[in-house]
Amino acid sequence: MPRSGWVKPESGRRLSDLVSVGLLTRVFPPDVVDAVIAEAGRTEQRQRSLPARVMAYFSIGMALHSEGSYEDVFAQLTDGLSWTTGWVQSWSPPTKSAIFQARSRLGYEPLRDLFARVARPVARVDTPGSWLAGRRLVAIDGTCVDVPDTPGNAEFFGRPPSSRGEKSAFPQARLVAVAECGTHAVFDAAIGPCSTSEIELARDLAGRLEPGMLVLADRGLYGFKLWSRAAATGADLLWRVKTTLRPRHVQTLADGSWLARIVPTSGLNRASTPPLNVRVVDYTIDDGRDNPEQYRLLTTILDPDQASATELASAYAQRWEIESVFDELKSHQRGPRAVLRSKSPDLVQQEIWGHLCCHYAIRTLMLDAAIQSGHDPDRMSFVAALRITRRSLSHSSFPPSRP
């Protein structure tokens, strides 16, 4: 009787060498997966039935099938497998324990590095809702994700305060991301404990912005240091600030906006820090309420001939697209009111990076479909695309371990 586990024939080939993951390999090619695994030092020193490449795709597969068990997800990865000559047809799937151990060997760094290697802005020059004054519209914002209530997760991630002074039900991880407004493609992100502020997690992201972007952010992110760091990259900024922030007026412009200078409001060296030039756009939205909400925007686009106050106010409304991105990730891809499955900090981070990779793959495929059909990718159904990607997961084969 064969032992439990993969049955390895004399040919030396393994069943896992024929695992199929379909469309994901279009976005995350196996050679790129192998490269990030090697750079992270996670390449196997001996042959295993669950090699690192398989587990990298498995981590993305968990995001596609977030409500399935380990065994269910692996079954989806191997669904439609054709048995080839030299293989014994009687086999046992890997156990939950074996999959957990393989996930632990992989860690989160290869998934993080895979996302960093592949994820890029994808909007074309003709993609609707993606540009203003020749600049790519992107938004930066943060959200929190519930993680399992284990001692390790609670110690590492912490718990948010509750309104009645009690402990929250679950520890939470904080995610800060940068996404294209026109395509919803997330192309940069940072993960940390919920006790780490969005501003702190956003610092590294701000330093990786690029010229040609117009970066939108809500008033919770504004700070002189973060603004300075982001502006120093050459990217243009359009951030909402609290109306209590009072920049030093310099000149009122013809479109009603005004030039001003901002200075740090705290810090040891604030008196010697040079001020920065900004343009201020003040407006309200008439939505029928007795006291309509007031908006104050700061921007690095100082010339109203490049973008008028009205155009900037309209563009700022695109910031809400990143809220839709978080809804796609948390309500549809993960599942409403769902908690991540991983019980250790390393695997929580692996799971979140897997979700980001999965979302990026789906959004990339949606853009391809939008281009072919002539539609706005923002108007296409993410839920439908998620369903199609789940169905097509096993429609193409690849060798999941290196030769």
Mind explaining what this structure looks like?
- By secondary structure, this protein is of the alpha+beta class.
- It contains 13 helices and 10 strands.
- The chain is globular and about 75 Å long.
- It starts with 23 loop residues before the first helix and ends in a 12-residue tail after the last helix.
- Mean pLDDT is 86; it is low at 1-20, 80-91 and 394-400.
Overall, the morphology is globular
Secondary-structure element order, N to C: HHHHHHEEHEEHEHEEEEEHHHH
Q: Work out the number of β strands.
A: 10
DSSP helix fraction: 25-40%
Sum up the structure in keywords:
alpha+beta, 10-stranded mixed beta sheet, 17% strand, globular, disordered N terminus
Provide a quick synopsis of the model.
With 403 residues, the chain is α+β, with helices and mostly antiparallel strands. It has helices at 24-27, 30-39, 52-64, 70-78, 96-106, 109-118, 151-157, 198-207, 224-231, 309-316, 321-333, 345-373, 382-391, and strands at residues 131-132, 135-146, 172-180, 186-193, 213-217, 236-241, 248-252, 258-262, 276-284, 294-299. Helix 3 (52-64) packs across helix 5 (96-106) and helix 8 packs parallel to helix 9.
